[in-house]
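TODO from last week: model Transglutaminase.
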Amino acid sequence: MRGLSWPVRQRRATPSVTTLTRQQCAWLLAAAALSLAPHVSWLPAWIMGFGFALLGWRSLLLWRGSAPPPRLVLLALAIAAAISVRAEFDHFFGKDPGVALLALLLGLKLLEVRVTRDALAVVLLCFFLQLSLFFEDQSIPVAGLALAATLSGLAAMASLSDANGRAREQLRTGTLLVAQGAPFMVLLFMLFPRADGPLWGLPADAFSGRTGLSDTMSPGSISALGESSEIVFRADFDGPPPRPDQRYWRGPVLTDFDGRTWRPRAFAEGAAPFYTVYGPRLNYTLTLEPHNRRWLLALDVPAAGADARLFTSDFQLLARQPVQSRIRVELASHPESLIGLTESDAVLAAARRLPAAFNPRTLALADELAAGAESHEAILRRVITHLRQSELIYTLRPPLLGSDSVDEFLFDTRRGFCEHFAGAFTVLMRAAGVPARVVTGYQGGEINPIDGNLVVRQSHAHAWSEVWLEGRGWVRVDPTALSAPRRIDDGLAAALPEGEALPIMMHPRMEWLRGLRLRWEAVSNAWNQRVLGYNPQRQKELLARLGLDQGSSWMLGGAIAGAGALLFGLLLWWATRKRRPADPLERVWMRFCTTLARHGIARQAWEGPHQFGTRIASEASMPSATREAIRAVCEDYARLRYGPKCSADDMRALRTRINAIRLP
């Protein structure tokens, strides 16, 4: 039939795209590399290797000027990456597989990038990968790496909008964007309502590779920490810090012994154990690093507060939940107090118990030392005298011991660390009929002269003993001090035998390096306290100082909006203000044009120096000498601006010619 025709489907118009330049690709590679590199400490090695291999492949293609690989190749690589991540983590859900997939997808997307739209997707992937850094670490170096990666990503975006611009100008644009956004970031950080708990949460595997004090003790378990400089906590005392011999930080109390390993017995929380206060009270703030345990590691003896549920029956201080983020707690201690004056028979019986058929030579020695003793105090004095005269050697590298570990230490190897001394002493006392137990924790600490905090590290891990004496309760005895008294007052390095290899940070010649470490740790502590430690309580204190603590959420929102509007206005003024030219020649020219404009001789915005001078020369209403002088200045400026380098003599001559002009 005539007049009828089938409608023809119109093909959708292809959006206009722009092929990327080498400089744009280089910025993308830099942003991707800086975003991926910090994850080397957390992602599996093969994922990091695969990711950097993809970046290297893209760099090689850029250097050779070759086209990206076919899409089928990229699809095959994507499928292989997904299967590998699934095999590594057993699932796709969660932080670790998510970050791994993000890292690999970034490399694959960069490999296929052809046009501006693809490049923008790469930059956004970089930003997400930078954000995931803070799930693992929020330290100053990580924040600096994230900032560098952000700057490179913004510079890449600037290059996408200005393909012919210089790299320096593009980096300057990225830096300017960060500087403009920083005030708004600080405003929201300070005033936006904060939730309880850490902002980034705790990684599920945050403690899988960490070492530290355990709730059990066996030969070699504490000496393994002797070379670790990792910070466990910091203590900030209201007054002078305690003496070195009072710096015992109480951790797990170990009562049960199977012949080799010490373990804590079942304790009752909230028992509020009896103690008698003696001596001064020390108030301090403890900043405890995360260790995924409930121990608060208070200075011995901790003062009982209003919340007795935080105490165990053996006088260990506990948090309500495992410490999975850095916390600050206000504590107090009475180092000279007496504890356990009225102890139960069950506790004392457990503190005398020893396994059968272990350490026979030690048991025989205990019988010999206890023979004829009129009291437990007398037995204690005899055991202390015997150990002091035994010439046992304190060493960071004790030999391995067998099943009768106490016998081998006291009679064969005679070399050990604090756990050997504490364990052997406690067994001797129990075998002699005196209740005794092992206490683990930390001893000592170093004062940081920069911020005044007392810093306790893993290398300060220690074990000591407590014996129960009638009328005195549980009395601390440090058997290590019997053979190495300098360990208590001067630290681990001073107590080790002469000639034993020291960890590098304990070497006497590394005083300068320790000084640098203390300075850096003071800076990191300030970052932790004032930035990472900015919690809801501190925000409330800030709002109270600003007079916003009594208002509603609408008032707080209005304050944020008002401050944001003020910042925006300041930035707008700064961006639109007339800037003074940085070039001296340009400043002379602008001053000359401003002077002419005040006398009714205005230069149009579109006029260059030649056009302006030509127009003025044709003005009949102006004296010819004035017209010629203005035209000459315009010609001189054009010659100096677009000619060879302008010298100081040229500048003086131009100023002289300008000053000679007589305007009506």
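Done. The domain at 345-443+461-505 is CATH 3.10.620.30 (C8orf32 fold).
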